[in-house]
Structures are given as C-alpha cells and as structure tokens.
Amino acid sequence: MGQNRLESLLQLRSCEVQLTLSGSNLSWTFQKRRFCWGREGPSVSIPVNEIVAVHQGDRKEQSKTIDAPSNRFTVYHISRKSAQQWILEVSTFTAHSCQEAYDWVTVLQDRIHSNGAERPRKLLIFINPYGGRGKAARIYSKKICPLFQLAGIEQDVIETKRANHARDYIMETDLWKYDGVVCVGGDGMFSELLHGVVRRAQMESKVCEKKEGATLTPCKLRIGIIPAGSTDCVCFATVGINDPVTSALHIIIGDTQPMDVCASYHSGELMRYSVSLIGYGFFGDVLRESETMRFLGPFRYDLSGFKMVLSNRSYSGTVEFLEADDDRSSPRDNTRCRTGCQVCSESSERRKEESDAESHCCDSEIWQKISGSFVAINVTGMSSACPKSQDGLSPTAHLADGTADLILVRECNMFQFLRHLKRHTNKKDQFALPYVEVHRIRAMRFTPEKLDEEKATCRRKDFFSSICGMPPETSSWNCDGEILDCAQLSVRVHHQLIQLFARGIEGTSCSR
C-alpha cells in the first residue's frame, strides 16, 4: 500500500468492490463476477474534497458509541440529485479485518484535510425565527444541525430577537474563534450579515467606510446562507438552487466564492451595501407600496407589482455611469458566470495591475450621460435569478469581476413594459427591445429632474392615477429589499469584497 495510492478488495452492500484511493479521488468498481455480462461492473468516483466524513463502523454502531473495533467503515459523501441539488449519500464498506478498516479511515481523514479548501471548524449561526414563514428554526434543527454535527463542526447558535440583531452582534463580539458566520433565513437576514462583516472588516482596518472615495478592505470571514426565506435570491444566484441541504454541504466542505459588493451613497455618504438589486422606479415603487400590505405575506409583492404595472409610472432624471473597460465580457454575450468562471478569475489579476490607477477613484475617468424619463433604473451585481425568474434581471452578470449591470427601461406604455417583464421568465432576450438598454459598469450616479407643468398635468388626468393613487414626483430606491428615501444616488462596485461558502453555479458557461 503506497502513500499516494491505496487499494483493497472490500464488500459494499453484499457486493464485492475494488476500492481505490488515488490522488484526490476515491473510487470503487463492482467486480465482474457480480455482473457477468461485461468485463467489469459499474464504477463510482467521488472527489476527496466532497467527502463529508469518514467513521469506523456502520451507522448503527456509531449511534451506539461502541468502543469495540469494527471491520466496517462508513463514507459520508456528496451525491448530485440534479444539476445543482446535492444530497448526502452513505456508503458502508466491510473490510477483511478491523485493522484494515482503521487504516482506510485514517488515510481518508488525512487525505480530506490535505486536499481542497479549508473547512470550517467553528461557525456562528444566526436563525431568523420568522424566516420561511416561521420554519427557519425547524429547518436548522431537523436538516442542518445533524449535518454539521456529522462533519464535526462546532456551532454557536443565536436566534435573532429584532431587526439588525445579527449585524450588531457581529460588530460588537470577538470573532477570532469563528471560521465563518451563517444565516438561516432569507435575503434580509443575509443583508444583516453582509453589513456586519463588511463594517467589522473596515473598523479593524481603520478604513472610513462612510466616505464615497474610500477603498474598502476585503473581508476574510466567510458568510454562509441556509435558505429559509420567500425568495432567497442571493442563494439561488450563487448556488443555483434554494435548497437548505445543498447550501449546508457547500459550507461543510469549505467551498469559497468571492463576491462583489455595491455601495450606495447619497451626498457622498454611505447609505447601504448590496449584492443584487438596486432599483429606482418600478422596483422601488413596488417595495414602497408593499410595505402597506405586510399582513399579506409574500403575496404583497405580487399585488403591489400588479398595481405598479397598471399605474405605469415613469420618472425623469439623468444617469451617469463609468463603463467597464473589459472587452472580454458584456451584458449581451452568451457567457454565464459558473463555477471557476474565467472572467471573474482574470479580473483578479487585472485588478492587481490596475490597483494604482484605481486608487484615484473614478473622477479622472470619462463618464457617459443619459437623460430622459425612465420606468425603471436597475443596477445588479449578479444575475438576480430566483425561482420565479430562472435567468434573473441580467443573465450574464458576473459575481466577482468588479462590475455591475445597469439596465435602463425608458418611458413606454404598460403593454411594452409588461413585455419586458415577461421576458424575465420565458428565456427570451429582455434587452432586445427598443426602449431597453444595458451597460456593464463600475460606477453610476443618478440625478432626478422635476416634471414640467405639462407632464404633471397629464399625470393627474391619467385614468389609472385615480385607481392606483397619484404618483410622486420622484421614486425611491430598492436596495436589496430595503427602501432608501432619496432619489439622488451614486453606486460604486467594490471588487470581491466578501467571500461566501459557495462555488458558483455548476454547469456550462454558455446556456443560450
């Protein structure tokens, strides 16, 4: 038995298999006498870094905590139920002796620790008791906690009592003993962790984050998301599915996905951080309108969205933006951000070379300017995909390339805007419309303009204004589900500011 390669003839579910550990892969092949119609039986191969745990004995022996040696050992590993959904699979092997079983367990455990990413040993976990319509605590206790225990991960669990409880706790508590922070909840809960982790990193680095020109320090503490919300947009766009077990398995094996963060500023002062949507016009109005219908639960977004479509509001202003200087990707190409994305990895190298130039911020750059009346102005740092919109607002947006996509929907009639919204769900190009344009940007600023008297009069006389209410002169911004009560706003993308327990969506980069 060499150090790099280990082989044994063992039993698996009463079948004889040849178990082989070679490099970073564990595989087993069913012997041909079991499958006499071919030269050899089927084979199974799994990467060592997708093994969750290895224990001597079978499940029953482990649950009884018997100290007596066993000639069995159990491998708990990841299996793919679908393209993105992961499940835990259990394979128990029977060796010829207790010593052989012990040797396999020892070698596999050593190989797990020497291969792949750094796995978390201790996590700080926040549970939103109202997440998932009150199911978050049950999801954690029934599905997630047993997995973390199996993997030997220590857990400090806090059930949040109020809004921003998690954010404040992260800011005030000594975090040196934790390898990551995890939220069990929805996008709102993730936003709390985002703000806490980013602000904590700036505080420790003595960076004044509140000023627009500040160069922020990347965060070392990883963030995990166990989806238990109504949309789970962040989880869906970074893992490809909003399944709690899949997300837990990504956390256990230590997957790491860097991620850009957009910072929103008003009059040069920091307002909020976000990773998905910063929306003015339609999405801002939908969020504000939905606040009056909270008693309806998630249905309030559908109802307020229908109301805003009927009202067909548009807002005047000037959008200025600094377009990304990378000609290797664009919002209209066919390249999707997937695991090991080349666009994101190359952006890291390019950013290092341009760090001196970027330290002067964007003032020396040439800004493009577009003025007009807009139904919606959206900035998204990711695809913003969700179960209702598999492609999201911008299907080819990248998670970690230092850019965001700016989507402008100019003034149009209700049916034209509905056509644009429909294309978010039917796989058609939502940008291939004359009143829609998209730009890949590094920064953006918006200045609202007042309506002239003629347009104001037309609004008052509009039929739907009497039904849906008189529209305000300016909209508000929807920043990852939080309302920003200001119309004037600037946005700056901070390259790979945070790290998630994820690996991006598995699959091909081109899907159109």
UniProtKB/TrEMBL annotation:
PROSITE patterns: DAGK (PS50146)
GO CC annotation terms, alphabetical: membrane
InterPro entries given in the database record: ATP-NAD_kinase_N, CERK_C, CERK_PH, Diacylglycerol_kinase_cat_dom, Lipid_Phosphate_FormReg, NAD/diacylglycerol_kinase_sf
Start and end residues of each DAGKc domain: 118-268
GO term, biological process aspect, one: ceramide metabolic process
Highest taxon of source: Eukaryota
Keywords: Kinase, Transferase
GO molecular function: ceramide kinase activity
SUPFAM superfamilies from the UniProt entry: NAD kinase/diacylglycerol kinase-like (SSF111331)
PANTHER family named among the record's database cross-references: CERAMIDE KINASE (PTHR12358:SF95), SPHINGOSINE KINASE (PTHR12358)
Name under which the protein is recorded: Ceramide kinase
Originating species: Xenopus tropicalis (Western clawed frog)
Gene: cerkl2
